[in-house]
Each structure stands twice: as C-alpha cells, then as structure tokens.
User: Which sequence fits this backbone?
C-alpha cells in the first residue's frame, strides 16, 4: 500500500512525471500511476522533460529510453547536470536490455531500470520503493536540518548564558569593590580627620615656638654680653652646652619641622580628597590635580629602596580643560593603574640589578570632545593571554593576598560605564605596558 510510504500521502500525493514519445504508452502509464494514487504529469520528449522538471519539481521521473532527438540516456544526464542534488530519482523504461545499455543508464545517473514490455507489477513495486527511499531521504534531511537548527538555538542560549554570567561577575565585582572602597574610604576619611586636629595644633604652635626660641636665644646672648663673669653654676652649664651650635641649629630644626608638618597636612588633604565618598554628582575637575594627589599618596612606593632605584615619574602634561567627571572615581582608576605599574616595575627590579624603573604620564586634549591620559611603565609587560583577560573581574597573576584581580575590572567599569570613555591597554612582553584612558569632556 502506497499510504505506508508517507504518512502525509493523502495530503501530498507524490507527483510522477511520465516521459514517453508514444502517446498510447504515455496514457496507459498515466492511468496505472493515477490508479495507485499518484498525481501524474506527462512529457513527450527530453526537452519537455527538462523544463517540466524545473517547473513542477516531480518526486520522480519515469523516463523512456528510446526517443527521437534527445533519448532517455541523454535526457537523464542533462537532468542530473541541470538540477544536481535537486534532481528527482529517474526510473528508466526501455526495450534495450543489453548489459551495455544497463551500464550506460546507471552511468548517466538513473536510479533504476525496467525493461519493456512492461511488467506492471515490477514497475509499480519499483516506483513504490524509489518513492519510499526518496521520502526517507528527505525526511532524514529534514531531521538533520532540524537538529542543526536545535544546535544553533542551543548555541545561542549558551552564548546568552555566558553573557549573563559575565554580567553577573561584573556586578559582583562592582559590588565587592564598591563595598571595599566605601569601607576603605570611610577608614581613610576617619584617619584623615583624626590626624588633622593634632597636626593643626603642631603647625599652629610651631610658629610661636620658633619665635620664642629665637627670643630666648637673644636673651641668653644679651646675658653673656653684659655679665662677663657669670656665677660658677651658670658657667658650668654654659661649658656643658654648646650654645653656639644650638643657636645655629635651632632655626634649621624648626624649619625642617615646619616642612614636615606641611607635608603631613598635604597628605591629609589628599586623603580627604581621595575619599570623597559623598561625591555622587559629576563635576568639572582638574585631571592633573587628581593624578598628582594620587602620586603623592604613592610616594612611599616610588622612592629609593634597598632593592633598587627610585621610580622616575615623567610628567608630560598637556593643556587640559576642566573635565566633567566623578573625580574620586577617576582617582581610583589612577591609583589602580599606578599600583599595577609599580608592582610590575618592582618585579623587574628584583630580576635586573641595573634596571632604571620609569613611569611616564602623558595627557592631552585630543579634540574638542575628549581628553586622553596615557600611563606607561617600562616594566616586564604582559603576554597576549594576560592582556586578553586584563579587564576580567578576579583575574590576577599575583600571589594570594597580594592581588584581588579587581583593580582593572573596576577601572574599566568606571571609565566606560560611568564616564562613557574608553580604557585600552598596549603591552609587549619585555618592553612595558601602556594604559590609555579617554574621557569625554562634555
Ligand atoms: N602595568 C602592568 N604590567 C604588567 N602586568 C600588569 C600591569 N597591569 C596589570 N597587569 C596584570 O594584570 C593583572 C590584573 O590586574 P588587576 O589590577 O586587575 O589585578 P591585580 O593587580 O592582580 O589585583 P588588585 O589590583 O585587585 O590588587 C595583574 O595581576 C597583572 O598580571
Ligand atoms: Mg591591580
């Protein structure tokens, strides 16, 4: 039964193209096929067969072998040539049943071969088998296609999941960092505040102390001038003290104490500006001030140490306008980049004795719309693999406890998301690293 071939047979009756130059045979075959439930189209020669196949796309072709002009073999070859993979199966029907003709039929691409006079039961059986095979084949193709679609959908879902995971990691990183920075910020702000008071006493009193000291020394000088013969007790004390030295050294001492206090006050100011937690609005800021105050906080890491030379900081500041930004957040970015550069330089110092570590800062306003800040070090640089993951949250090559791997991730967020700018890294192993920040002026 044909219905077993294709469950949709009743809906989509297979279409068979009968090609024969003999009208009677054409008619008989047509009737036989229609009786088996197929739809039938007819053609009387090779050319008609080619154009019919293109137009109506039959499910199979019953092709007469001997026809004038273009015989069945030539038609079959032309059909394969023309339609390629889309060519329907071809059942050749011909009186030529010698071996050579059979070989030739298969050589030109016939699916099967039936001889004349037609044995109807054989013909019907072959037609059925060929259609069943074709149906199974198209079904297989359909399934493969469906699987491919499913695979593609799965791939899209996996990509979406990966994206979500990435977003989650970013958010988590941001939360952790915000939390860390806010408690660190509070601590720094508290310490700055506490130091500020005593330092203010010292600096306020230093001035008076200096004046009193000078006046007291003056007084002693006057005594010495007018009482040439002091009491033995006073003379003994005078001998013990090197009064001339004290008179000379005291002003210098007071001077260096004043410088020291001034420096503490500057650092306190930096700490306070660095931890400005309340800054939730954008405001026009001087980028160079931000860089300088960050560098001041890092001075202890820049100066000479037993393990190597001081890190030289070259500033090539351009003419920058005030930039609308979140200043404390940008300071955080500078801090992360400088810390990384110093870590990298220290690594190279430990390996290479005569190494002269250097950080170069170049700022410029690229055009009316944005400024750029480039911070480069001549440290060990990064491999491609490290560079690719540089901005990934929690990516670090440092030992446990030393690096969290958040510095660059958070800096990236701050520059791109918060400021609509760009953060790029250029690095070559052995040569160094440059981080380039672009911030829109607005
Ligand atoms: N200037 C640089 N030279 C060489 N490698 C660098 C430089 N800056 C960053 N890296 C590499 O990128 C990694 C990630 O840097 P990131 O600042 O995000 O994390 P971290 O410094 O390891 O830890 P954290 O900053 O959280 O304390 C570093 O571990 C380091 O391997
Ligand atoms: Mg870091």
Assistant:
């Amino acid at each position: 039964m044909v219905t077993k071939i294709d469950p949709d047979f009743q809906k989509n009756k297979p279409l068979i193209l009968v090609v024969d130059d003999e009208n009677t045979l054409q008619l008989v075959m047509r009737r036989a096929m229609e009786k088996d439930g197929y739809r039938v189209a007819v053609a009387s020669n090779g050319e008609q067969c080619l154009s019919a196949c293109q137009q109506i796309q039959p499910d199979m072709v019953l092709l007469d072998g001997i026809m004038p002009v273009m015989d069945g073999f030539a038609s079959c070859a032309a059909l394969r040539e023309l339609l390629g993979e889309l060519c329907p199966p071809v059942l050749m029907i011909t009186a030529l049943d010698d071996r050579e003709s059979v070989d030739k039929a298969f050589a030109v691409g016939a699916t099967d071969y039936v001889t004349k006079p037609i044995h109807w039961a054989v013909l019907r059986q072959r037609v059925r088998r060929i259609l069943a095979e074709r149906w199974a084949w198209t079904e297989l193709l359909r399934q493969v296609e469906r699987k491919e679609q499913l695979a593609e959908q799965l791939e899209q879902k996996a990509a979406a999941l990966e994206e979500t995971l990435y977003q989650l990691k970013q958010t988590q990183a941001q939360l952790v960092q915000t939390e860390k920075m806010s408690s660190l910020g509070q601590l720094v702000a508290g310490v700055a505040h506490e130091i500020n008071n005593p330092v203010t006493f010292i600096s306020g009193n230093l001035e008076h102390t200096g004046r009193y000291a000078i006046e007291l020394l003056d007084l002693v000088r006057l005594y010495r001038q007018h009482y040439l013969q002091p009491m033995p007790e006073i003379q003994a004390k005078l001998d013990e003290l090197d009064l001339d030295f004290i008179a000379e050294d005291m002003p210098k001492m007071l001077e260096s104490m004043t410088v020291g206090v001034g420096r503490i006050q500057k650092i306190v100011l930096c700490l306070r500006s660095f931890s400005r937690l309340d800054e939730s609005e954008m405001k026009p800021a001087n980028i160079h001030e931000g860089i300088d105050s960050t560098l001041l906080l890092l001075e202890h890491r820049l100066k000479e140490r037993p393990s190597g030379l001081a890190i030289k900081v070259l500033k090539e500041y351009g003419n920058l306008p005030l930039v609308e930004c979140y200043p404390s957040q940008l300071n955080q970015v500078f801090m992360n980049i400088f810390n990384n550069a110093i870590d990298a330089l220290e690594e190279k110092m430990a390996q290479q004795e005569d190494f002269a570590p250097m950080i170069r800062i170049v700022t410029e306003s690229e055009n009316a719309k944005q400024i750029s800040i480039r911070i480069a070090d001549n440290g060990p640089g990064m491999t491609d693999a490290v560079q690719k993951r540089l901005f990934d949250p929690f990516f670090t090559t440092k030992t446990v406890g030393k690096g969290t791997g958040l510095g660059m991730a958070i800096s990236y967020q701050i520059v791109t998301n918060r400021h609509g700018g760009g953060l790029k890294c250029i690095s070559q192993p052995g040569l160094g690293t440059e981080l380039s920040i672009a911030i829109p002026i607005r």
